[in-house]
Amino acid sequence: MVRAPARAERSRSARSRGREGGLPMRHLAAVLLTLAVLPALVAGPTLAQEFPTKPIELVIPYGPGGSHDLTARALASVAQPYLGQPLLVVLKPGGGGAVGSQHVIRARPDGYTLLFGGTGPNTTFALVQKAPIGPDQFAPVARINYSAPLLAVRADAPWKSLRELVDWARKHPGKLNFANTGPWGAADLPMRMLARAAGFEYNNIPHDGGGPALLAVLGGHADATFGFSAQLMPQIAAGKIRVLAITDTQRHRDFPAVPTVREEGFDVVFTMWRAVLAPRGTPQPILDKLEGAFRKISEDKSFQALIRSLGDEVHFQGGKEFEKTWRDEWEQHARIVAAAR
Fold it and tell me: Which domains does the chain have, with CATH numbers?
């Protein structure tokens, strides 16, 4: 009978000590959580200020000599003054671009291992093969530029415009022989998009790359193909090829008389972009610093001259803007891939 008050007294005494001599448990937990998070909050800006302290690797998911490799080397040639460290071009081809892409995805997200990604591996291949190397796996840093393919026919072909070719193809289903550059390649996909938008059927003939596809057209084994300006220019200058349209949103500076596909009445836009991508989880301050450096690189006059020598222009987009561009492209291509299955 006399023990209960004693226990009550001790309980009141403990509560009193909690109020007067220390912090309530919920307040103590909040303090401990703040102390745990504070180093990370402080380290983020500090890390970005120090970054980079060593060379940065730019991984190319293709072999040597292609447009990605040449553009990356143009970047690397002027990068050090803007990055503060050398930009090292590392070739990791294989698996349709999956080998290089997965190498970067698995890398430490510290800004020192980046991918020079593109439409081919990181949109088209990722969708067709259901490979986890798309926008969900990367943090975009910046788009550097893109190339838009041009629809080319022989100079003696009966079609003087895209509309004439489409009208003929509609009247002769399956008779238009198209030379693609390989399944789902840079010529195959825009032709699928055009045929779907314009409502015609064609004979799709695969070739091992843009060179063989163009030779097939020149040799009379195919009626048309899509190609890039640098590849087509010599044949156009020689009077062997006629260009009917471009899949960009604007006309090409070297072919001002060639309309866009949209101008011809068909809602098709297709470009092969080249963009710097970081692994997901890379701290935002580092992404911001990288974006700023690549923006300055893209404005460098010598870099712009190098890109023009490749038949391209600089089409810079920051990380957030390009992520929207990429997501829009992803959704559009997903519909095309789904329709083909």
Answer: 53-146+271-340 (3.40.190.150), 150-246 (3.40.190.10)
pLDDT grade, residue 40 (50/70/90)?
Answer: very low
Q: What are phi and psi of 234, to 5 degrees?
A: -60, -40
Q: Residues 155-166: pLDDT tens digits?
A: 999 999 999 999
pLDDT band at 21 (very low <50, low <70, confident <90, very high): very low
Residue 208 CA, distance from chain mean position: 23
Spatial distance between the Cα atoms of 314 and 293, rounded to a whole number of angstroms: 15
User: Beta-carbon neighbour count of residue 218 at 10 Å?
Assistant: 18
What's the mean pLDDT in 225-253?
Answer: 94
CA distance 149 to 247: 6
pLDDT at 28: 52
Record the tokens describing residue 191, joined without a space. 């032709």
Work out whether the CA dihedral 248, 139, 331, 69 comes out positive or negative: positive
How far, in Å, are 15, 88, 215, 305 from residue 26 at the CA level? 14, 51, 75, 62
Confidence check: pLDDT of 295 > 80: yes
Check if the beta carbon of residue 85 is closer than 8 Å to that of residue 53: yes
262-269's contacts with Cβ under 8 Å and 24+ in sequence apart are: 264/161, 264/162, 264/163, 264/166, 265/163, 266/162, 266/166, 266/194, 266/197, 266/198, 267/197, 268/190, 268/193, 268/194, 268/197
pLDDT, residue 47, reads: 61
Number of H helices, E strands in the chain: 13, 11
Cis peptide before 52 (omega within 30 of 0): yes
Going from the C-alpha of 106 to that of each of 26, 90, 125, 137, the distances in angstroms are 39, 16, 19, 10
User: Residue 7: what pLDDT?
Assistant: 43
Task: Classify strands 224-227 and 150-154 as parallel, antiparallel or unpaired.
Answer: antiparallel
